Amino acid sequence: MAPLLLLESCTKRFGGLIANRDVSLAIAHGEIVGLIGPNGAGKTTLFNCISGALHPDQGRIAFDGVDISRARPDRVCHLGIARTWQVVRSFGRMTTLENVMCGALRRTNRVGPARARALELMAFTGLADKADALAAGLTLADKKRLEITRALATGPRLLLLDEAMSGLTPLETAAAVELVRRIHSELGLAICVVEHVMEVVMPLSHRVVVLDRGEKLTEGRPEDIARDERVITAYLGDRYRA
Amino acid sequence: MVGALIALAYPLPFETGGYVYYETVGFLVLLNAMLGIGWNIIGGWAGQFDFGPNIFFAMGAYTAALLAIHFQANAWLGLVGAVAVAVIVCAAVTYPITRLRGHYFAIATVAMWMIAQPIGATWEFINGSRGLFIPVSPGGGFVRGMLTMGFPGRGKGLGFYYLTLLLFALTLLGARAVEHSKLGLYFRAVRDDQDGAEGIGIDSRLYKVIARCLMAAVFAAGGVLYGFWALSVLPDQVLEVNWNILPMMAAVVGGLGRLWGPVLGSIVLIPISQVMTATLGSGPLAGRGIDLIIYGAVIMLIAGWRPNGLLSLPWARWAQRLRGRAPATAVKG
What we know:
The structure holds two protein chains of two kinds.
Chain A: E1 5-14, E2 17-27, E3 32-36, H1 43-51, E4 58-63, E5 66-67, H2 73-79, E6 81-83, H3 96-104, H4 111-125, H5 140-153, E7 158-162, H6 170-187, E8 190-194, H7 198-204, E9 207-212, E10 215-220, H8 222-227, H9 229-236
Parallel strand pairs in A: 3-8, 3-9, 6-7, 7-8
Antiparallel strand pairs in A: 1-2, 1-4, 4-5, 9-10
Chain B: H1 2-9, H2 12-17, H3 20-45, H4 54-71, H5 75-94, H6 102-122, E1 132-133, H7 142-148, H8 156-179, H9 182-192, H10 194-199, H11 204-230, E2 232-233, H12 235-238, H13 242-255, H14 261-280, H15 290-305, H16 315-322
Antiparallel strand pairs in B: 1-2
Helix pairs in contact in B: 3-8, 3-9, 3-11, 3-13, 3-14, 4-5, 4-11, 5-11, 8-11, 9-11, 13-14, 14-15
């Protein structure tokens, strides 16, 4: 079966800086892929290229057989990729419900069905009691949860989570990991998780891809990656080699 | 409901008492409230400050005037044509600038207004700085006046008051329908976070264009009213800076992004400006702009005291206190 998302040797430069060099990657239907790497490894740039916020200078990105290398973000979303942001981008002066409705309106033009769908999803993600609160007043954990709910409302087949758990307390992180698990098991989405906290990615992912200085270092099962010499070196430096 | 009755009855005492000037004030309040509602769509909901909306006001006035002069077109037909022209031109000139965000979008709209001024003053097709004069056929009563927007002789103040009230009400109802529709939600999403909006499938450029076209439609309709009221379309009048500033000020003072904000702002601001022009504009201080200084001070006071507009005052709590009930506690997120 053809992969859902396919990156073929993508390169993205910012002036002289090469943020992504020759990165190839495939994500299958219903798979959870962890994308890890130290700060500045190019994880978010790669996300931006996939979601259409940036376009790769070289290489090709295909989603379900459609070339999206040059597609704008709204088009990418229409095709079935939804994302969240490292720095939350909730619509602050709108209520939680209205935020999610905006996502749900991707699939309908009528406000009534969008509201019903939004409430349904908010019950699923545990935001139902905050429906009428302004998004700007939510806690960081709830804002991140809101972004995930809003992304789900667009009806994606692939969900990109950019550090959806960073900045949270251990308890909140555990709840977020649980939510991602439920999204995978109950909604059957393919999910790509960017994190630089290994403890979050490893137990969650079916497969882990490691980026370092813009290049793909390696990929494999979480338990193999955790023992990989090159990964340890990239994260901790030579001095701490086991 | 009460407001609607007051609005309907407002000019009657002046009509019988002969103070037609107050009908003109009412006309200006409604006209600016209507324009303010239009401006609120792009400025308040879509969050893109447009400092040059009066080009569509002018476009509306000119289109209806040209149709009346060359084709003896009825004013309402002229209004339809004016709205169509303004929306088409707006879509064409706005799409390129929707790549710009924030201040840069605002600067681009100012630039359009500055380009429009010399065009209005020199383009021979619209008679350059000499302007156009709208022919009005003599005779006919109130009903015929409403159907043609022509009131030769007396009855003009009353007639235009009700004409504007009608268009104002249509604008308000239209805006209310938009507010709670997909459009309204998408406008506010683009305002609050453009990247976030695009990420959930909203084409931000398209929705900015739609928002500005809705505004252009309202301004074009307002321009037609003004043209037929003044019976002339002069470039320095229809491209006057006040048609940019007053609707915007009405929205900001009343409550940016709120449906009734521009209405309240207009009710507060326009009479102040009219009363001061009338009382301080003549006499010993005449010609020194003292009326404008006081007007500016009032706006600064309101803006400093209530930056979110007069509608952000706790009206609901006050109303409840009047009725003797404890105020409902706000739900905390």
